């Protein structure tokens, strides 16, 4: 099994939607989450606050430096995401397609590193 | 049957068997790099051994077995260095016989992996030619006029994504098959057109992409005998390719209506017509089947004047319902001109948003000529010449322009 | 309690394990990974931990648009920016100050800037 990040991209424009339409989206996303939980592949899901609620911490020098706002070079913030644990990319794309339809926006699918406990790379890249 | 050993026979066998060997190993070991490397090593052994002993009765089986042993050797070597590989080896060493599914050929899994929609389209084409078609990276690079390192990188990156993102090595589920098959057929059609439209003037070292596409389509046809769109695509390629020799004369493109029909390849046409008849009997029409049927009507006419344009128009009407895009509308307009007259066709063409497309200008020029609007036709021929990069087409358009009264 | 995303950003090259990625050398990378590992255990021990994971490089991304009749799948990433999210933690903390303090330790451990954003609801 591989974990995949299924992230909302492209900042969907929900401001123009009516409360009813918004409710419908929430219900549709909720239904996909319920199905994913039922299938036993759902790890985490959540919507994020926008850049106005974002803070950056840099403590590489030893002393934490806290600055307001999103990380400078991130042009477009993630609106939210799900983490799923599935057999392969085709299965991940199937769920991403369902999330995309429910939230009315494209989704980006990226695999997590295979073994979070791996201390050194195990692939035979040197060949 | 033992075959005589010579370089040409060897090259043909390698190309024919490469996809089978790589596909089989990719399924067993779940890794394209291991599969390709082992296939390459097996070819090297074959060159030496076959030169001495002659070509074995089943060269494909020989190559697959040899390559499988090479891959196992490599995994064993690595497992000595890395305990983690030991576990992997225990799994891969115990390979069950090929799982029986709806289709049993590993090459089918491989082609769906190569043409996966998560890969960039240009990489799908390159990977299919490399892994399934057995073409070398330099051959693919030359065929697409891309620098060799760039083509190599394109293929390497695609393979890295297959591995990292876990693109599966399997035939898609029945529900996904039509859409996924469409992506595969699009790759084959693109390979064909790349060879067909480029026409003449290729360097002698250039792999003939049209032939390669037909070979891939034949493999798909063999793997998916019940998919009418596969039969349709093969028929379309055969019926188009049958006219290849008559398409050019004296460095000039010859349009269908003026082609020497005696120069058409009758055996390809007969094979294509049989496939089209099979599609009609199956009665699950699709884009490639309809395009093949249109080509069947054209290749059925002994003279251009005998063409059943009503039938062609009916088929374009059907195609337009599947694909309402402007390019289909443009091609349909050519049939409209024959059935309802050039003025009706011109009214359709004028509305199409294709002003940067050379065929739009060329079609419009012909229609303007036929309705007697010579000055405008002249301008359109100029625009068509400017919009195409193909010298043979330019020569033809320039001649047509000169013929205007 | 509020859930916070603590994300680290980087370039495709930062994911290159063979060169040590953004850490400068394979040794420095191993050190940072070991420290991050210790930090993760602390998050779990102190009850802040929800999830943590490192992502594979942006070139492994695929975009899915499921808004039409048929989902459209394309090679990713969605944005052609130089820097992408490279990995993140999800923590649960009583307030932003706690989250920022945890983010500072995360920044030290993984040797990167850490962006902190609250989840909704």
UniProtKB/TrEMBL annotation, chain A:
Residues 12-98 form the YCII-related domain. Pfam families: YCII. Belongs to the YciI family. This is Uncharacterized conserved protein. It comes from Nocardioides terrae.
From TrEMBL, chain B:
GO terms for molecular function: DNA binding; sigma factor activity. Residues 180-278 form the DUF6596 domain. Residues 112-162 form the RNA polymerase sigma factor 70 region 4 type domain. Residues 17-79 form the RNA polymerase sigma-70 region domain. The keyword Zinc-finger does not apply. InterPro entries: DUF6596, RNA_pol_sigma70_r2, RNA_pol_sigma70_r4_t2, RNA_pol_sigma_r2, RNA_pol_sigma_r3/r4-like, WH-like_DNA-bd_sf. Keywords: Sigma factor, Transcription, Transcription regulation. GO terms for biological process: DNA-templated transcription initiation. Signal peptide: none annotated. Transmembrane segments: none annotated. Pfam families: DUF6596, Sigma70_r2, Sigma70_r4_2. Belongs to the sigma-70 factor family. ECF subfamily. This is RNA polymerase, sigma subunit, ECF family.
UniProtKB/TrEMBL annotation, chain C:
Residues 27-118 form the YCII-related domain. PANTHER family: BLL7171 PROTEIN, BLL7171 PROTEIN-RELATED. It comes from the Bacteria. Belongs to the YciI family. The lineage of its organism: Bacteria, Bacillati, Actinomycetota, Actinomycetes, Propionibacteriales. This is Uncharacterized conserved protein. InterPro entries: Dimeric_a/b-barrel (IPR011008), YCII (IPR005545). It comes from Nocardioides terrae.
